[in-house]
């Protein structure tokens, strides 16, 4: 089994910052891509940012220049530094990892952490 545990969500005022963390644990051989997704009420889940095992990153246009994804491979942990937060960033944020177990690569999801941007 593979577990992804997120932390760091909360309530913040517009213009503020938050840092999300997601740690992977369990029985696996390797993690390729890790990423953050979000889902706002009434909307589909969307990708926010992804990072490969060698550090290549991709961002949604809506967060470029404000969010930074990083990764500590030794700790199997991915981070999302969110600055200049806007009310439209309000959503449940989910961590995702592409994990190798035995002979297959599979996607795993965390339980989600709420981020609310409001004055």
Straight-line N-to-C gap: 40 Å
Poorly predicted sequence stretches spanning 5 or more consecutive residues:
none
Strand coverage percent: over 45%
Order of helices and strands: EEEEEEEEEEE
- Counted by DSSP, the helix tally is 0
Largest sheet: 7 strands, mixed
Shape: elongated
Would you mind describing this structure in some detail?
- The protein has about 120 residues and is mostly beta strands.
- It is built from no helices and eleven strands.
- It has strands spanning about 1-5, 10, 20-25, 30-40, 45-50, 55-60, 65-70, 75-80, 90-100, 105-110, 115.
- The strands form two sheets. Strands 2, 4, 5, 6, 9, 10 and 11 form a seven-stranded mixed β-sheet that branches. Strands 1-3-8-7 form a four-stranded antiparallel β-sheet, with no helix packed on it.
- The protein starts with a strand and ends with a strand.
- The mean pLDDT is about 95.
Sum up the structure in keywords:
119 residues; seven-stranded mixed beta sheet; four-stranded antiparallel beta sheet
Summarize the structure.
The protein is mainly β and 119 residues long.
Question: Topology, please?
Answer:
Elements: E1 2-7, E2 10-12, E3 18-26, E4 30-39, E5 46-51, E6 57-59, E7 67-72, E8 77-82, E9 91-101, E10 104-109, E11 113-117
Parallel strand pairs: 2-11
Antiparallel strand pairs: 1-3, 3-8, 4-5, 4-9, 5-6, 7-8, 9-10, 9-11
């Amino acid at each position: 089994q593979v577990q992804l545990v997120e932390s760091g969500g909360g309530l913040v005022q517009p213009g503020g910052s938050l840092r999300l963390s997601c740690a992977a644990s369990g029985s696996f051989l390797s993690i390729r891509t890790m990423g953050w997704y979000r889902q706002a009420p009434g909307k589909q889940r969307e990708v926010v940012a992804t990072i490969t095992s060698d550090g290549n990153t991709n961002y949604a246009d809506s967060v470029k220049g404000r969010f930074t994804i990083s990764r500590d491979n030794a700790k199997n942990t991915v981070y999302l530094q969110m600055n200049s937060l806007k009310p439209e960033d309000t959503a449940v944020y989910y961590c995702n990892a592409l994990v190798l177990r035995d002979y297959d690569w599979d996607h795993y999801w965390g339980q989600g952490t709420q981020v609310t941007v409001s004055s």
